[in-house]
Amino acid sequence: GENVEQHPSTLSVQEGDSAVIKCTYSDSASNYFPWYKQELGKRPQLIIDIRSNVGEKKDQRIAVTLNKTAKHFSLHITETQPEDSAVYFCAASIETSGNTPLVFGKGTRLSVIA
Amino acid sequence: NAGVTQTPKFRILKIGQSMTLQCTQDMNHNYMYWYRQDPGMGLKLIYYSVGAGITDKGEVPNGYNVSRSTTEDFPLRLELAAPSQTSVYFCASSYSFSEAFFGQGTRLTVV
To answer: Which terminus of chain B is more exposed, N or C, with fewer CB under 10 A?
Structure first.
């Protein structure tokens, strides 16, 4: 089955700097790659996703890149703010299959230092 | 829209007791999931369902059972609770194996 590795497990950045979180996946058939943000004591919430027919997607300060050949994708957060502090999870799935639901990475705890 | 609703929010069980975690969604999603999240860890899939009457095991199904009699509801049953089942349980739903909407979680402690 699918296996998703996520690095780093913790990341500290100064406010205003950029943060990059990287994930690799094992199943070349995976075609949907979401990123979730989980604030302390809250539920995970989708912040951005990318499908395998595109290489990059951007939404304000957040961007995701996908390299299908290397089977890795990354989350980029620019101009970080204290409210970006949270745990971020990547995931992968085969969107239209009947038996390959989302598999999550172990998460990255991002701390933005004011 | 309420989205995905889980009950209860908190529960303390004694070893060997049983309980059912309730999950209901009002988005008419066919796909539903149960994940568990241990402290400082990621989300591990327990069971999932792609429609009423269909369920499948995930990565960590032992000690749990599910049923899916309606599109809206996907209860998770714990039989003979063990300390290893202390965790936060999240129910989620989605249109396909894409964007998943999560419930607020159930924090379960087995003592």
So the answer is: N
Is the CB of residue B59 less than 8 Å from the CB of residue B45?
yes
Using an 8 Å CB-CB cutoff, list chain B residues near A102: 33, 45, 97, 100
User: Are B66 and B56 in contact, with CB atoms under 8 Å apart?
Assistant: no
Tens place of pLDDT per residue across chain A (114 aa): 889 999 999 999 999 999 999 999 999 999 999 999 999 999 999 999 999 888 999 999 999 999 999 999 999 999 999 999 999 999 999 987 777 889 999 999 999 999
Q: Is A15 helix (H, G, I), strand (E, B) or coil?
A: coil
Test B100 with A99 for CB contact under 8 angstroms.
no
B100 contacts on A by Cβ (under 8 Å): 34, 46, 102
